């Protein structure tokens, strides 16, 4: 451990943030590479004479921060870690960085299934880092879940994240495209969730460099209109859901009505477009019959 004064650290921190970037990204850098959590810094801030203990030298932290700023590489990939709800997750450029707005999916599930003792059978299609499925497996310890992904590398990351987050064994991972690995679970699923690729091609072409140049295209691009994968998921969902089973989808900010119509055509009821904290119709949910 390297020891420096709080005053020296605060001067250095001010210099780094003056170059650009945001406080949240800088906090990830400090926590994951510096070994300084936000609570550590809050405790130290009342005593400017105190000492901080770092895992790495300030020069090294600065080089990572400069890489983030100059090359537009997401700080989560440089650190290999991201934070999502109360989870600390491993991430690489093989998986999408889970977004804060996606956290609301867990709250939607809590509203649908209020008793944490319920024995649900849930699935997540396109799990990536495993964030959603892991959060649900922890919240509903009596339930069982299956998470799928088309990329074996992503599944290895998700599996490690589950092992690191829990001693439970109520979540399994299967490799394959959407529903294809779940043939043996037809008609047995209480809840299916997916945050699929939904960005239309013309929008994808205009994405910021830090997204387009680093995050996996396969996890973002949803075809010409952004609905290619959402259509496939909805069309096959009735084969796999129990009667009265729920489907929760994340979609692009302007796709809610289109997704609602797709659900109606496939015999879903109780359809609702759920807004995120910015007032955007980010999620569309429906119950099968």
Describe this structure in words.
Helix content is 39%, strand content 22%. Helix 8 (152-165) links the parallel strand 6 and strand 7 (171-175). The chain has 289 residues and is of the alpha/beta class. It folds into two domains: 2-71; 93-288, 3-Layer(aba) Sandwich (Rossmann fold), CATH 3.40.50.150.
CATH class of the largest domain: Alpha Beta
Low-confidence stretches: none
Gyration radius from CA atoms, angstroms? 21 Å
Terminal Cα span:
59 Å
Discrete helix count:
12
Mean pLDDT, nearest integer?
Answer: 92
CATH topology of the largest domain: Rossmann fold
Tell me the count of domains.
2
CATH architectural label of the largest domain: 3-Layer(aba) Sandwich
Largest sheet: 7 strands, mixed
Fill in the keyword field for this structure:
single chain, 289 residues, alpha/beta, Rossmann fold, 2 domains, seven-stranded mixed sheet, two-stranded antiparallel sheet
Short description:
The protein is of the alpha/beta class and 289 residues long. It contains 12 helices and 11 strands. 39% of the residues lie in helices and 22% in strands.
